[in-house]
Amino acid sequence: MKKRLVILGGGESGVGTAILGKKEGFDVFVSDFGPIKDYYKEVLAINKIKFEDGGHTEDKVLNADIVMKSPGIPDKADIVKKLHKKKIEVISEIEFANKFTKAVTIGITGSNGKTTTTMLTHHLLKAGGLNIGIGGNIGKSFAWQVAEDHYDSYVLELSSFQLDGIVDYAPHIAVITNISPDHLDRYDYKYEKYIDAKFRITMNQKKTDYLIYDADDEAITDWLSKNKTKAQLIPFSLTKTLKTGAYLNNDKMEININEEEFIMETDAVSLEGKHNLKNAMAAASVAKLMQIRKETIRESLTNFQGVEHRLEKVLKIQNVQYINDSKATNVNATFYALDSMTAPTVWIVGGVDKGNDYEELMPLVNEKVKAIICLGLDNKKIIDAFGNIVDMMVEVDNMTDAVRTAQKLAEKGDSVLLSPACASFDLFENYEDRGKQFKNAVHNL
């Protein structure tokens, strides 16, 4: 009798899991509460996989042997509660796919910087000649690649939601870039629960595995002081000198791993900003552990191009620099963006608030921001927080108005920064849509 695999969510991770499940001999059924995109419907149809969208038929879901839940679906959803009540195992795509591959995985998580670090790590390892895939929260789903591609190793960007659904999965190398309050609406507004979710990345690691982490991050060091992991610890820091790990020595980045030293001038790293130096340290530490040549690491850190929608310079118009940081969906990401601004800044902010506390941005806004443009349906919290700090505050409800207003407020030598600190779902499909609309509006000025 075939085991029944039910997949909740017909997006990238759901459809990838369906393809792998069918290949591995499961009786597969995909169910999506919302509409499934036409492209994915076609893929399911071609592969003769049964599916439904626009709602869940309970008896077709609750007869599962195992359920893969897409990361966007909260545990609080009715159908998930019913599955838990029936004691049916609910796992993530990462957990499911990992059982069908012998590939080595590098898992990267964190509140910010994980996409950049994942892409940079992949860039370094690929340049070093490894047959390596990239997946997780980014690009083609991990399960889909396990079904169709034959990589020896993978770099996976892992969100806390994906880690919530793991049971046995353990990456050979885990990276935690940083932890700051985010998605607290999914964790009963308890920061400790969110921190614990991030650390699930190391829960199954063995003595032969590694955990690379930010030693300057209070939430991370606090957790490590109170909890145990079997993995070998490789810290990185901008403030401490470390015996093992990566650190800053004046204007040089130094990495000591396995009693081998790697030194590189920080000026030569292509990505700008302190936070990107940390991302570079994390990625280079992975490359050292994977035995990539020093020369390749150095060259790859020099020529990496960065990530779309993350501090992406769009255009300079009348000596005003327009910067797209749409991927900044929480306060901490926006903190890094404002921290890296060197010119007076017109800041476009707002969207769906995930329990934000704007307190930590106050000194930066005071020092760097000359005007704020609120782009959201409910801007009260932003107005209350910054109303007395900046001279000019404007509310708009679409990207064209936001960019045109910014152009009027900016003078020669200023920067216009889209760094929303919020999710995008009130006015846009997702942060990519928001970033693309920003770039289009800038190009149309």
Can you describe this structure in just a few lines?
It contains 17 helices and 20 strands. It is of the alpha/beta class.
- Average residue pLDDT: 94
- Main sheet: which strands, in order across? 7-8-6-9-10-11-12-13-14
How large is the radius of gyration?
Answer: 22 Å
Which stretches are poorly predicted, pLDDT < 50 over at least 5 residues?
none
Descriptive notes:
Belongs to the MurCDEF family. The N and C termini lie far apart (62 Å). The protein has helices at 12-23, 38-46, 58-61, 78-85, 93-98, 114-127, 142-148, 160-164, 191-199, 218-226, 274-289, 294-303, 331-339, 362-368, 380-386, 399-409, 431-443, and strands at residues 4-8, 27-32, 50-53, 66-69, 89-91, 104-109, 132-136, 153-157, 173-176, 210-214, 232-237, 245-249, 252-257, 260-265, 312-317, 320-324, 345-349, 369-375, 392-396, 415-418. The strands form three sheets. The chain has a nine-stranded mixed β-sheet, covered by helices on one side. The chain has a six-stranded mixed β-sheet with strand order 15-16-20-17-18-19, sandwiched between helices. The protein has 17 helices and 20 strands. The chain is of the alpha/beta class and 445 residues long. It is globular.
